Amino acid sequence: MQAFPPSFQKLVHELSRLPSIGEKSATRLAYYILKEEGDLGKKLSSAISEACSKIGLCKTCFFLSEEEQCRFCVDPGRDSHVLCVVEKPMDIISFERMGEFRGLYHVLHGLWAPLRGQGPESMKLAELLRRAESAEIEEVIIATGSTVEGDATALYVARLLSERGIPSSRLAQGMPKGGELEYSDEVTLARALAGRSRIEAL
User: Fold this and answer.
1) C-alpha closest to that of 123 among 171, 86, 81
2) What is the pTM of this model?
3) pLDDT band at residue 74, thresholds of 50, 70 and 90?
């Protein structure tokens, strides 16, 4: 690695910070960017800069948006009585690809994972509780993944909602154990949504 020019090493280092990208993959990507014709590097740099400057979080559901509210929150055709809670923005895309859910969303941006130092304060949980206490919300669907942390988060959130008299449900176990919504196919996700069940909080 030391044999490469400093600027190339810096590019590799930054690329290797991306999820699932190790040093070897980062090195291949860096080389591809540099050798590709058509100013790929400049276009990529410009696109990243524009996205970072324009995109923030929706003030209501915390999905990605260039405006104060995202396209889901301002859509009058969505069912405002049903709120689907997900871990990350990509999970919403999975639901939309399925095409069978017309309610609203709330992105937690994390899971309850005490062993990793992630508690309730690391999620958009207080904001969720405020939304759920709205008179319009009749059901909260907790759609975290079927991982240990996803299950723990679902139970924790369900208990907090139950204390406030708000009913919640969980996706059916058509979802593979240990699976994340982002990687679920549309049929599996649709069946899990249709077969969701009430969470009886302890």
Assistant:
1) 86
2) 0.79
3) very high
